[in-house]
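Let us practice reading a record.
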Amino acid sequence: MHFTLPEGSWETWTEEQCMEALYNARWPDGFRCPRCSYAHCSVLRSRKNPLYVCASCRHQTSITAGTVFHGTRTPLRMWFRAMIWLVEEATSVELSEILGVTYKTAWLIGHKLRDALTQQSYDQLLSGLVAVTGGIYGWRRASSSLVMATSDQPVAIGGTVEGDEDIREIKMEHLSKREAGSSRLISRFAHMKFSDAHVSEEVKAVRAFPYFGMNKLAPLSAILTHTLRWFDHTLRGIGPKHLQAYLNHQSFAFNIAKKALAVVPYMLHLCATRKRITYRELIWAS
């Protein structure tokens, strides 16, 4: 993720500097044709955003084509602001006010950024000493039944533990009910299925705890509790269609704060190297 950024803080960058930053994030070692990987091109500057013409196959591409920003009419400066407010847990309503765009545009920007996080989450595995627990989104504590209701959504959370049970990195997954079982006390089997998918084979150990850790691992349970409450109290509820995207959003916000990484360069790299998702795909995603 090493690439050159324009001088000064991103808040003061012009749109041209934002384009320069995106170019360097997408092609840190210089231009590569997205079709044939050839390293040389000519540049057409007759339009607002330049077109890069491959000297080998003559394929034309813009700096945003094929990236998360593909086809956007929103200035990149707005996207960079959205990256910051994504970590601040802004809702789509708040984001539309911050950016001065419509709710639909803010919703689309937020979900495209979350989709980049989702694509990246598949490549990251937890390592070291890992703890895994889980909970049920949608379960009202007033209900005494331990049988999972139709509206219940099982969620697993795993975290790398360091020192005195300090959580350094997390991943969360929306489990299928087939894997989680019919009980609201998510089975150890479901936790181990999570481990198979999201924990490195080189881990020191995996500890699995039942629902919300049964107070045995309070820090990890507290992160999950905060996440599920944020869904209900701030977002007014999340349906199963986009639940995983918001779980990845929360995991990212926690992890990047723990690692003390700069948000904009990190997200810019993801947006420049991950595939775009269209509005139609977001609407019809299952």
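A brief commentary: The chain has a mean pLDDT of 88.
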